[in-house]
Amino acid sequence: SLNELIARNLTKEMKTWDGCFIIRQKRGLSSLSMHSWGLAVDINAFENQLNQQPKLSKEFVKCFTDNGLTWGGTWDRKDGMHFEF
């Protein structure tokens, strides 16, 4: 996925890498987050907050979804910073 960002000249869109492995519950829920197993990453959290309209470009998101990750920006409870396996 990161190699795809480089290949597609989209690295300038990644401003912050905001988390991968941290054992915790999902925000507002009792189940464990995918971050608890190192199966999720957050990108540009400061501008892609939970339940807000995500600001990542379609091309940027496609670099990750083309490589098998799911993007939280399409969920009912939008989580635009979140990508997971």
Task: Give your account of this protein's structure.
The chain has 85 residues and is α+β, with helices and mostly antiparallel strands. The chain is built from two helices and three strands, in the order H-E-H-E-E. It has a three-stranded antiparallel beta sheet with strand order 1-3-2, covered by helices on one side. The radius of gyration is 12 Å and the shape is globular. The termini are close together. The mean pLDDT is 93.
Unreliable residue stretches: none
Helix content: 10-25%
Mean pLDDT equals 93
Number of helices: 2
Main sheet summary? 3 strands, antiparallel
Radius of gyration: 12 Å
Shape: globular
What structural class should be given to the helix and strand makeup? alpha+beta
Strand content: 5-15%
Number of strands: 3
Spatial order of the strands forming the largest sheet: 1-3-2
- End-to-end distance: 12 Å
H-E string = HEHEE
Question: Which structural traits does this protein have?
Answer:
85 residues, alpha+beta, 3-stranded antiparallel sheet, 2 helices, 3 strands, globular
